[in-house]
Amino acid sequence: MRPARVIAETDLLQLERLLRESSSKSQMQRIQCVLLRSRQGLACDEVAAVVGFSPGWVRQVWSAYLNAGVEGLVCQVRGGRRRSNLSLQQEQALVECFAEKARVGGVLVVSEIHRAYEEAAGHCVPKSTIYRMLDRHGWRKVVPRPHHPKNDPQACAEFKKNSQASSGAKGKGRPR
Length: 176
Description:
Elements: H1 9-21, H2 25-40, H3 44-51, H4 55-68, H5 88-104, H6 110-121, H7 127-136, H8 153-162
Helix pairs in contact: 1-2, 2-3, 3-4, 5-6
């Protein structure tokens, strides 16, 4: 094991304060990696067993601290739209182009939105991207209840009144 670098007492006190104020488990574990090495003199494998990291990860934490100081221990929260084709504002503008047609009561065809999205992005995208975009902006598929175009409610009511099952033989249903 390589000899540990000596860390100043003021830095160790700052690390202990950060440990008490840590907001996440991961950040606490990263700070513990440095403190256990400097205060207790534990080796990489021993720190890994205590903290719950792999030995390789413990070495990376130490390296991050030695290179960047306390900022190297602060966890960078992952997330966001790393692989987005358009920004949220561009998507919103694209959706607004089709909003007027929807307000009038027209039927939106996803293939039209798909073509417009591909033009804005500059390359081909799968159709699932369009459905996710529409969901992200609060659009949903609204379909009326299915009914036959020649459906006549009066004829249905008349049939129910005069059918064989409703007249005469109660409880017997259809003849077999």
